[in-house]
Write a structure and sequence with these properties.
CATH class: Mainly Beta
Keywords: Signal
Largest sheet: 4 strands, antiparallel
Domain Ice-binding protein C-terminal: 184-207
Number of domains: 1
CATH topology: Jelly Rolls
Protein name: VPLPA-CTERM sorting domain-containing protein
Helix content: 25-40%
Number of helices: 6
Pfam families: PEP-CTERM
Structural class: alpha+beta
CATH architecture: Sandwich
Mean pLDDT: 85
Radius of gyration: 23 Å
Organism: Undibacterium parvum
Number of strands: 8
Strand content: 15-25%
């Protein structure tokens, strides 16, 4: 057996045996309904509404995506001052996880910070990205948040304007069951398989040379 075949077979086994991440998306990653690239500047003015018909009638939080001046009385296309993203039916067994947001134009030091909770647990969202910046952010979930997911089988994120005068928006919210940047790690069995394959090839070559 050629060395390339050994490596190919072993790589396939590693890929199949490695843990894969699962994610849940609220919103649709379409650049705020306007095709804005990740981490690019936006052209929005207060009251911008790029939602699809389905997003406008959603109840899981998608109704708060693809807008600007989100949950800002007098400007926002939504009512109220609290945006809620609801990830339900998550089950238990959560040992790690991360949240991802594509967010626009947070300026906490200028207009005041929002009050954000993950399952009732306070999060620090005093961001100062500035106008007209969009930014994709991720947050590894802390153990206390993971514990609440395991007990309630859901993650409820509330973003309370809290008197802030800031205009901001979201393209999407995405939950993953791995930490951000986590790459699949070969399981011991796969590594052993690779080692055995290489050892077998070496033995075969020695027999041929005798």
């Amino acid at each position: 057996m050629k060395l390339s075949k050994v490596f190919a077979f072993s790589a396939l086994a590693i890929a199949m045996s490695s843990a894969s991440a699962t994610s849940w998306m609220i919103g649709d990653d379409d650049g705020y309904g306007a095709g804005i690239a990740d981490n690019a500047n936006h052209p929005f003015a207060a009251g911008y509404d790029g939602r699809s018909a389905a997003e406008k009638v959603a109840t899981d939080g998608a109704q708060y995506t693809d807008t600007y001046s989100t949950a800002h009385p007098g400007y926002s296309p939504q009512t109220g001052t609290v945006a809620t993203f609801s990830f339900t039916g998550l089950g238990n067994g959560w040992a790690q996880g991360s949240m991802w947001f594509d967010m626009a134009d947070f300026q906490a030091s200028t207009f005041g910070a929002t009050k954000v909770k993950f399952n009732g647990i306070d999060q620090n969202w005093a961001f100062n990205d500035g106008y007209p910046t969009t930014k994709v952010r991720f947050f590894d979930l802390q153990q206390d948040v993971l514990d609440t997911i395991n007990s309630t089988h859901e993650l409820i994120i509330t973003i309370d304007r809290n008197g802030s005068g800031d205009f901001y928006g979201f393209d999407y919210a995405r939950l993953s069951d791995t930490f951000a940047g986590t790459q699949p790690i070969p399981e011991p069995a796969s590594v052993t398989l690779l080692a055995l394959g290489i050892a077998g090839l070496a033995a075969a070559r020695r027999r041929k040379s005798v």
